[in-house]
Amino acid sequence: MNIHGIDHIELFVGDAQQAAFYYSAAFGFTVSGQGGPETGLADQRSLLMTQANINVVLTSGLAPEHQATEFVLRHGDGVAAIGLEVDDAAATFAELVDRGALPLSPPRTYVDADNTVVIAEVSGFGDVIHRLVERRGASSAFLPGRILPTGNELTMAEPLVHLIDHFAVCLPGGELAATVEFYERVYDFLNIFSEHIDVAGQGMNSVVVQSKSGLVTYTLIEPDTTLRPGQIDEFLQSHRGAGVQHVALITDDIVNTVDRFAHRGVRFLKTPASYYQTLEDRVGVVNAPVAELARLGILVDLDHWGQLLQIFAESTHVRRTFFMEIIERRGARLFGSGNIKALYEAKEREMVTAPTPLAAQPDPDPAVTR
């Protein structure tokens, strides 16, 4: 079984058109495909958003009984499916089911003159499914006959993010060990990192599992139930169960990316000025002005291989659940313990002080292609 990487993610949202406008205006994604009842996608509207190697499908249900409608009613907008690149979807489906995954949708084939796409679905965590995707063909058709290319111009002249680094997954207390074992046994993932964070009388346990290709990574998190409730408990309550708290997007230049996104209206979590006073004493010389890192709120940490720079965006959802992270790896392969604690603290401050989130008014971005 070879899981090569992330083919796409699908978000179930209340209004696909509205969500597409936000991800385009704020994060620079381009609408590159669409489908609905007229293309054979019954009772749904789906829009394909792309940026470099990242594919995001936004789907809204058009009927009360559609799975997207039910998901949004229960959880709010969020990640409903993670598409995994495989060589043979039918064989991988059979192997995963034999290992203990629940079969959700058997292999289906979609074809056009130049492409064959085979898709099958199996269980993951909570209500999030894993979609096995096999692609064969000469062109880049996403889902032949179902999601049709729109031919829209790029939102930005050049991409600012280009790949999904990891997913942070919140689990109810007591489910972490079993979920780690499930991914090791069924998906052949490796346990590559574990951490306990204790902040101001609350805390969490986390384990990072990763595909052998190194291109699919889940940070699995559960609250420490021996301590007082905190942000993980609040996510689980607001989301009504396990789910993806955030998706981390990789950039090659985090200072430029965060600055550009901020001008486009993205709000990022703040970090106290004191964090930066001894930054280079902790992590060594950083190839970026510390004053710029402080202005933008970017955190820096390191592991045995190099430095890691990252920042959380604020959630724009009324439940304050799902949000994005921007991350730059300068040689680092894992997750720095200092950043994990600092990000936890930043999110905790937001949960305490932030009002119902609204996107900031974007400033003009001269690099936008209109």
Going by CATH, the architecture of the largest domain would be Roll
CATH class of the largest domain: Alpha Beta
Q: Describe the biggest sheet? A: 9 strands, mixed
Any idea of the CATH topology of the largest domain?
2,3-Dihydroxybiphenyl 1,2-Dioxygenase, domain 1
The class by helix and strand makeup works out as alpha+beta
- Uncertain runs are 356-364, 366-370
List the helices and strands and how they pair.
Elements: E1 3-12, H1 16-27, E2 30-35, E3 44-51, E4 54-61, H2 67-75, E5 78-86, H3 89-99, E6 103-111, E7 115-125, E8 128-137, E9 148-149, E10 163-170, H4 176-185, E11 190-199, E12 202-210, E13 217-223, H5 231-239, E14 243-250, H6 254-263, H7 274-277, H8 279-283, H9 290-296, E15 299-302, E16 307-312, E17 323-330, H10 337-353
Parallel strand pairs: 1-4, 5-8, 10-13, 14-17
Antiparallel strand pairs: 1-5, 2-3, 2-9, 3-4, 6-7, 7-8, 10-14, 11-12, 12-13, 15-16, 16-17
